[in-house]
Design goal:
Elements: H1 2-12, H2 16-24, H3 31-38, H4 42-53, E1 55-56, H5 61-68, E2 85-88, H6 100-110, H7 120-127, H8 134-145, E3 153-156, H9 170-174, E4 184-191, H10 197-200, E5 207-213, H11 234-238, E6 247-253, H12 261-266, E7 272-277, H13 290-298, E8 306-311, H14 317-323, E9 335-338, H15 349-359, E10 366-370, H16 381-398, E11 409-413, H17 430-438, E12 443-447
Parallel strand pairs: 1-2, 2-3, 3-4, 4-5, 5-6, 6-7, 7-8, 8-9, 9-10, 10-11, 11-12
Helix pairs in contact: 3-4, 6-7, 14-15, 15-16, 16-17
Protein name: F-box domain-containing protein
Length: 460
Amino acid sequence: MASLDLPEQGLNMLPDELVIMILDCLPEYDVPTMFALNNTSRRLHNLTIDRLYATFPGYNFEKFLGTVAPPAPWGCPSLALHVKEVNWQSACGIASHLDLEVIRAISDHLKEFKIRFSSLRKTEERFTAKRPSERTMAWYLEVFLLFVPNVERLVVMDAWHWDDHIYWFDAVLDNATHFSHLHSVTIHGPLRIQNIVPLLTLPTLRTLDLTKAEDMRQEQGKPFMWDSSPTQASRRRLGDGSSALEHLTVRNSCIDAEDFIPLFEAFRGLKSFTYEHIGTSREHDSWIDYECLVVCLEHQRTSLEHLSILGDHHLIDEDIDELGVVLPEMTCLESLELNPPRILYAADTPAVAANVAAKISRSLKILTFNFKHVQASWFHEDFRHEFSRFLEALAFEIGLGPRLPNLHQIAVVNWPCHFGMDTGKRPPGFARLQKCFADVGLELQGARQEPTTQNEHEEE
């Protein structure tokens, strides 16, 4: 038995700083080890409790509420103060039967806040329901969040369980002072862009990442909340300059660009905007409405630093011309990411390159062409050669004068494998293209995937 005590005694003899360094080496998902250390001694309990409860994994939320809702000594409300990140699994977030005393404690806690259906009767009904309705699925999350006031990041994994005809997170907005730390929200849909309108005016929110935001069909006989009255309209709910959001990412989505306008009117100073448009079978959804997007970008032309607009179609001349209305006015824009341009005829290549060079902002530092969502039908030998000629012509146009003094890098990412870029290799002629850019003081980079990290904005 003495030998089993050695690791414990050795760890307890180390200074706190060294123990924390050791804990930093443990994988975040190694909960059993962290739990064992937490139960070893009072000192290790104090050193590990923040890490053990920092992330709520999204399962059995009602059991956690059963622990933190009742006051001491029947419960342990202090545990909830350690939660910094909530990963919400709607498919698993179905409340089981809680003791009436726990439900009463939850209801008493909710009386301190402005939350819908916070009476004991309604709370009891919802926490004892065998099959919660889609309207109450988001309600459970709102209730849970009111018990974790120090949460900084929220990730919703499957919002498709929720009612997409109403606004979400009204309770969060109504109790905004309670969420003084929440700065990042990620939601995996499908969802409608209108669903998240209440979140945008949360004073602390800086980063919003949405996946599969779509213009879905409306259920028959079921009205949208934002169409129910003039006071519920998105533009009325938001108001000009009401949102402090800085980073908006909308991936694998298909949105009517007009629905973005109330959002961009509300942003006080958006720093980055990423939109990945994936068309649906409906004809009007297939293409990005650049004209309408330009209307949105006009509202943020003095604050945007990063802009990425990608789709599953090539960038045509008209798209470049539309973007050219606003890009030169973007005085802070440092990085721009677009689809590669369409080149129908070899003779058009210099004109297309000249048009691109003339439309981008003087402040730009990095210009990226991304093949991420480009349709496979593009990838033929002629296009490979024409795109290489386009890059060469672009280097020539940029080298003609000092119009783009800050531009130092052109990047081509997600270059198709059968264009010649296998692992560790570059497309045919890539070295020659790099020399063309080097001759005018620019760097040409090629990569199979984007060099950025998923949480790059959160690390700033």
